[in-house]
């Protein structure tokens, strides 16, 4: 459980960032930029479309490079999304351009979220005992939905006091700080099957390993 707590912390902060933006993004796009409801939906939905499209990519990355790397990559992508949020504020006099930059930022954040949650779940399962796998997934889900619940009121409070710039700064700085939380947690090795796929030169040896039990069984029967 001790090794799992930092990973849960990473998941919590990653989804806290998402939760903070969810209630204030429509206000910023509609009231701050003066754009219509369709653009509000487009900007808000771009994150989830990117998360959907990048999910398999994130899973492949976790399988071939180990679970820690996609978490680190996801945190860095989240920080880049925050920088794009900040950049969009420089173009508020040009609402269309500002919304376009914001849309890209939301897409980057969605991809980062895919990498973080996929890597975190894989990481937690690898560190846990076989008897605790269901519990690991339950705790990851708890961290995620707790972040949503807490993030919404925090986001509206920050937005009311300091505007969307506060959300952008939080989106930039929190993932970078979270890298310190993830760094001490031990890495886990990629799966054996993924190692074979990543290094074609070892494919024959992997095939030999996978078929050797059958050969031994045949010899015993003979």
Describe the structure in your own words.
Helix 3 (37-65) runs parallel beside helix 5. The chain has two domains: 4-190, Growth Hormone, Chain: A (Up-down Bundle), CATH 1.20.1250.20; 191-222, no CATH class. It is 83% helix and 0% strand. The relative contact order is 0.19. The protein is elongated. By secondary structure, it is mainly alpha-helical. It starts with a helix and ends with a helix.
Question: Keywords, please?
Answer:
mainly alpha, 83% helix, 2 domains, 222 residues, Growth Hormone, Chain: A
Radius of gyration: 21 Å
* CATH superfamily caption of the largest domain: MFS general substrate transporter like domains
Which stretches are poorly predicted, pLDDT < 50 over at least 5 residues? 202-222
Based on secondary structure, the structural category is mainly alpha
CATH structural class of the largest domain: Mainly Alpha
**Element string (H = helix, E = strand):** HHHHHHHHH
Mean pLDDT: 85
Largest sheet: none
CATH topology of the largest domain: Growth Hormone, Chain: A
Spatial separation of the terminal alpha carbons: 48 Å
Tell me what the CATH architecture of the largest domain is. Answer: Up-down Bundle
**Secondary structure: number of strands:** 0
Name the helicity range: over 70%
Large-scale geometry: elongated
């Amino acid at each position: 459980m001790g090794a799992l707590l930092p990973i849960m912390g990473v998941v919590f902060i990653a989804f806290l960032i998402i939760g903070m933006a969810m209630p204030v993004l429509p206000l910023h796009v509609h009231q701050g930029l003066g754009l219509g409801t369709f653009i509000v939906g487009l900007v808000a939905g771009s994150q989830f479309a990117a998360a959907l499209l990048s999910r398999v990519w994130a899973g492949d990355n976790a399988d071939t490079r180990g679970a820690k790397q996609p978490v680190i990559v996801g945190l860095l992508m989240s920080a880049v999304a925050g920088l794009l949020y900040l950049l969009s504020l420089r173009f508020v006099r040009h609402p269309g351009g500002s919304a376009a930059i914001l849309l890209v930022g939301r897409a980057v954040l969605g991809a980062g979220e895919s990498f973080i949650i996929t890597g975190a779940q894989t990481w937690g399962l690898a560190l846990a005992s076989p008897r605790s796998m269901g519990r690991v997934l339950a705790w990851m889900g708890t961290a995620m939905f707790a972040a949503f619940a807490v993030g919404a009121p925090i986001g509206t409070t920050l937005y009311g006091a300091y505007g969307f710039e506060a959300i952008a700064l939080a989106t930039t700085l929190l993932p970078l700080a979270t890298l310190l939380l993830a760094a001490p947690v031990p890495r886990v090795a990629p799966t054996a099957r993924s190692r074979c796929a990543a290094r074609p030169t070892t494919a024959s040896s992997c095939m030999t390993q996978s078929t050797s039990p059958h050969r031994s069984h045949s010899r015993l029967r003979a």
